[in-house]
Amino acid sequence: MSPNSNLNSQTKIALLFFAREKEVGKPLLAWPHYDFDPQEKIYELIEKSNKWSKELNNKVIFTLKKWIKNEKDLEEVRNNLDKFDGMLVYILTTSLNYKLFLNTIREINKPTIIFTEPYHSLAWPEISTLMRKRKSIIAVASSSEDDLLRALNVLHSYIQLRRTKVLVISTPKEMSLENLHTSDIYVGDRIYNEYYFKRIRELLRLEFVDYKELIKKYNEVKDKEARLIAETLRKNAYWVNDNIRNDDLVKAAKLYLASKKLIEERNANAIAINDFTIMMDDLDALPVTPCVTITLLNDEGIPAACEADLNSLILQIIFKHLANRPAWITDPVFDFKDKSVIYAHCTAPTRMAGFKVEGEPYALDIHDETGKPVTVRTKFKVGQEVTIAQISWDFKKLIMRKTKIIDSPIIKIGCRTKAKTYADNIESMLWEYEAPLHRVLVYGDWTKELMYLAKLMNLEVLFEGKA
């Protein structure tokens, strides 16, 4: 389970400054102070921008740095649109040219952070006006550079999301976004409409591939190449179900290698496998369940979704770039007896703490619903803080919850990997549950970053289970 080396595609940012000009020998006539010199501050921030890039591992680079004083400056930005993917707009004083400020953001119309330090701006009405127009804007007012770096990391992740090409492996009858998940198993869960289709297409580039193409690639993989992966899987597992043969692990490894080859050939960055629909049509259509494939791909930094769940895949892609770690698609289970919400599924990554961090302990088991081999059963860290999130079925809300894992139980029924959490208000969590079913779990507290992301994606924030 080796991490992928190509994790940090660069995002190019225009660093634009807005400030009132100070005339020589005269007071500024603005906040932060009559003697404040915007030009000196801009020189300082331009120098700092190199440090910001380094602190973000050069995921973000600043390719255009300019004080926008007049229409001529704005025209220069317009003429260089191909040099940047998004903007960091830094407000340095009050009493600036607000019309020019508003026109710049409206006309450039790229994902934007508006940042200001305390006592340097009072542009709250202008900023909120822009945000109410559903522009992709994060507004941050802070005396901490950490808040700026967080926002830049979110902006980077969002821009990388929109560059992502996804292979959707499906059946011939579900080979388009509109036809995806027409199987009876999804009725009531994934409720789609034209707005949903529009938003998905804005965020992801999709290529549908008949699962028979995957099988063709599978048949081209040499057993010898797959056997090395199979041996490593068995050797590193702390337990293996007696019903799993070495040949099952070789097949699982071949399916993983075939999926990876298909991703490389189609120049894709992520994959979604419509496994339930494929296996409902023909239980033996796939040589093994794709659970191991999804685990291994996620562990090495290739976002992979079971059940072709594109909502969840969006968040997996975001967390890849934002947190440098995989995220896990789950089914929530409620138990009023001890106020627990257990998140369960059969496709858990092991490198939950990071692509370059040693994976969590795991066992090899059979798939719950089909009884077929083989799936990884990851043992999650008790006490680990986690963020759980999802995009609502109507693509209007970003649902999130922060909690801690209190157990990683091994229970025969239900999907193999389980993470148990406590919810004091469990009744309202169930009674007010927002579709779709799945939730995405990631190690760490990413709630502030998700709030920023919601602004870029024009989503309302919903804290799940809040009393």
Structure description:
The chain has 467 residues and is α/β, with parallel strands linked by helices. It has two domains: 11-161, Response regulator (Rossmann fold, 3-Layer(aba) Sandwich); 164-463, L-fucose Isomerase, Chain A, domain 3, CATH 3.20.14. The protein is 35% helix and 23% strand. It has a seven-stranded mixed beta sheet with strand order 16-11-10-17-14-15-18. A five-stranded parallel beta sheet has the order 2-1-3-4-5, with helices on both faces. β14 and β15 form a beta hairpin. α2 runs parallel beside α3, α5 packs across α14 (447-456) and α8 (223-236) crosses α9. The two termini are 41 Å apart.
At a glance:
This protein is of the alpha/beta class and 467 residues long. Helix content is 35%, strand content 23%. The protein contains 14 helices and 18 strands.
Q: Give the C-level CATH assignment of the largest domain.
A: Alpha Beta
**In terms of quaternary structure, what is this?**
single chain
Number of helices: 14
Percent in strands: 15-25%
CATH topology of the largest domain: L-fucose Isomerase, Chain A, domain 3
Q: Main sheet, how many strands, which sense, barrel?
A: 7 strands, mixed
Task: Label the overall shape.
Answer: elongated
Query: What are the segments in which pLDDT stays under 50 over at least 5 consecutive residues?
Result: 1-7
Overall pLDDT: 95
Number of strands: 18
User: How many domains is the backbone divided into?
Assistant: 2
Helical/strand content category: alpha/beta
